[in-house]
Amino acid sequence: MLNAASTSSGRAASSPTTLSPTPTESPDVRRKNAKENTSETQFIDYGNAFLIDALLDRFDLLRPLNALNTDDRDYLSALLLFSILEDKSRSVADVWWQGSFARILYPKAKLDPEHIAYLLERIGSVFSVRSFFMYWLDSLSGSQKRRIPVVIVERTGLLKNGPGELSLIRTDRDEICNQVRIVYAVREDSRLPVLLRVEPDNSYAKSLVTEAISELESCGMKPEYVHLDDRSLTDSVLSELLLGEVPFVTLCPKELNAWETAVTAVGDPSDTGSVAVNEDGGLFRHRIDFVAKADINHKGLSLHAYVRRDSVRQDHERLQILDTHKGKRSDAKKVTEELRRAGLEVWLSSVDLDPKDLIHRCTATEEVDQLFGLCRDWESLAPVEYESENAARGRLLLRFIGEVIRNRVEAEVKTIETDLTFRGILFKARNQKAELCGSVCTPCEPSKELKAIYRRLKVKPKSEYPLPPKRTRS
What we know:
This protein has helices at residues 2-14, 29-38, 47-58, 62-66, 73-85, 93-98, 102-105, 113-123, 126-141, 206-218, 235-243, 257-266, 269-272, 311-325, 332-340, 355-361, 364-372, 389-412, 422-430, 448-457, and strands spanning 42-45, 148-162, 165-170, 176-177, 180-187, 193-199, 221-228, 248-252, 274-275, 290-298, 301-309, 344-349, 374-375, 384-388, 433-437, 440-443, 465-466. By secondary structure, the protein is of the alpha+beta class. α3 (47-58) crosses α19 and α8 (113-123) crosses α18. It is elongated and about 85 Å long. A hairpin with a 2-residue loop joins β10 and β11 (301-309). The strands form 2 sheets. Strands 2, 3, 4, 5, 6, 7, 8, 9, 10, 11, 12, 13 and 14 form a 13-stranded mixed β-sheet that branches. It has 20 helices and 17 strands.
């Protein structure tokens, strides 16, 4: 018994046991984690915000921006960067600010919807916009020794305020206007934007055009011609333009008598015209479109008419004509005449232009529609929201400034062996992050291609930036 008990006790004593490490052998997990929490590392988007901020000074935009009627530059600069860098709803602007280098550059900015709406109202006032362009035009003309040729585009349409969203404009007189009229001027050689005027209107206003011409001429710029909006063009407006001193080019609606006169005078552009070309001399949009010219009279006044046969539209309209007459008894001569005129469009001008260069010059109207979000056919789009006149003008002014930066950047990086567009450059720059650690912001090393872009644009990031004091978000 004793021996058995002793044997049992011996086996129990020799059985394996789990040994706990001594305190000196155990890693101090809590102390290590506490240390990491006190020096937490964060990464934010750096390169794109840094680049735009640096270029505002390089491209002479700081003085015009300071002329805007704002309480705090941080608010305006942060909203400007957001509108350039992000094609998103303004409701996410504050979230973008939190993860961008803009929070270091503009620590006082507040980009919640209420502050954004207030800011757009301020910068979109007539006084603020005119003050901006007074300084902007002065910076353009100050170093010029000759008159700068510019082209003015007049355009009307409904404003898009986001994907599939349209805006109705509430005017200062508390009236609702379904369209805006934009007068936009660019340099003819470089397409650099020089002037913007926005009015809630849907009828031709000669005073808005002549006012823009006078303002440009006073700053040493020479308006070559005005692209007039065809939707407000009537026979009486056309006569008024010819009697005045406004050089113009416009698409002619089929309802005007001048359309029939021009088509009859020119005949078939494929027989008498030349092929439309791009600026570089290649085929316009890789298509064979013929343009022919004829001088006509409109109510006793001389006018240049250009008839273009659009090859793409011609095929589409011919199919429509055949489908309309399918299964019906039709007049053969009438159908033949309709087919002959399929795809024709008429341009009228008070200035003499080369027919083959006309079409690529007139694409400026499409550029304006795309830049400012003008919608010409809005029946299928919804919903519609209301926007004040000043807020709409302020929103378009921010797009104007963004287009100035895009134009200058793409012009300067042409010397680099890269096919990147402005958007491509911003994407590359966004890939450069910055590390927030302790009390400093340290940019990460940029890629080789991004370094070349920085050198070409003459901007240089700092090695580190001090972090601003934290603020209480209201």
